Amino acid sequence: MKTEDRIRHRFGDEAQAWSERYDRPLERSIHAYNLHRRRQHALDLLEETGGRVLDVGCGPGNVILSLDISKRLERFGCDFAVPMLHQARTNARLQDKPLHVFSADALSMPFGNRQFSSIFCLGVLEYANDVVQLLSECHRILQTHGQLIVSIPNLTSPFIQIDDFFNGIKNAVTRSVPSGMRRWLKTNLLGRDDKAYFNGRNRRFDPRHVRCLLEQIGFVVQETRYHTYGFSTLNVRLDSKLFRRAEVFAHHNKTLERFGWTCILKAVRS
Ligand SMILES: C[S@@+](CC[C@H](N)C(=O)[O-])C[C@H]1O[C@@H](n2cnc3c(N)ncnc32)[C@H](O)[C@@H]1O
């Protein structure tokens, strides 16, 4: 199976679970914490100018549906995992909010030039097989002065580097033990479901590199934010207050701030 198909199926299988992570009050897992913070920063960064707002790789629509449309905004979402779009429609119906959804690959979107005033692209770049093409597509469909809010896992974060290292060891160990013992280890010790391992793409990026890419494509980067300071390796149920405290502490220091697990850039089409 091609990597893109694996990614599409993996997210398709997770549609409901993904949505539920947002629905629950802040879970005591760093992954859920990260999603909540990412959404919050993205919504804060968006200057509401009216017009059409598109969420590229919208998943179950939890970000775009959180957008206040009192300012005459129209919401759009696109994703290549069809079950995600079903879930997005269900969520929109339950919240009684209009949402237009499209099944499309973000590398070639079925929209005309300069159709959107703003675009969110959160948690998608790390799965794209052509990052330049994805960002160029966003540029093509944005109006002049339109805003792109894009997130990346931060390669320069020591938290991510240490986490990736230990996750690599952990996966190698749990993969090599008999399935009964693996199930026990994963569910009891690591606090996870015994899901199949995901061999899809899950890249990390240097924010300086993405900044340069955006500028080469024709964006002006206006703001860069970082968030989430912690580890996921053991998925221990730490109190989310701890993550919050770490974040407040890091935001008081420009160097520490850049250690955040996720980086969000706000870029404007020039
Ligand atoms: C990590 S989830 C993030 C969902 C949502 N943006 C959020 O922040 O909750 C990534 C989503 O991007 C979608 N996706 C990944 N690559 C894509 C591509 N090339 N075209 C369209 N959707 C894509 C996946 O199907 C998945 O729903």
Description:
The protein is α/β, with parallel strands linked by helices and 270 residues long. It has a single domain (3-155, 199-269), classed as Rossmann fold, CATH 3.40.50.150. 43% of the residues lie in helices and 19% in strands. It is built from 10 helices and 7 strands. It has helices spanning 3-13, 15-23, 30-45, 82-94, 131-141, 158-176, 179-189, 207-217, 240-250, 254-257, and strands spanning 51-56, 73-79, 100-103, 116-121, 142-153, 219-227, 262-269. Strands 3-2-1-4-5-7-6 form a 7-stranded mixed β-sheet, sandwiched between helices. Helix 4 (82-94) links the parallel strand 2 (73-79) and strand 3 (100-103). It is globular. The termini are far apart. The chain binds S-adenosylmethionine. Residues 7-8, 11, 57-59, 62-63, 79-81, 84, 105-107, 122-124, 127-128 line the site of S-adenosylmethionine.
> Secondary-structure element sequence?
HHHEEHEEHEHHHEHHE
CATH topology: Rossmann fold
Low-confidence stretches: none
Strand order of the largest sheet: 3-2-1-4-5-7-6
- Largest sheet geometry: 7 strands, mixed
Task: Indicate how many domains the architecture comprises.
Answer: 1
Coarse morphology:
globular
Ligand roster: S-adenosylmethionine
Number of strands: 7
Strand content bin? 15-25%
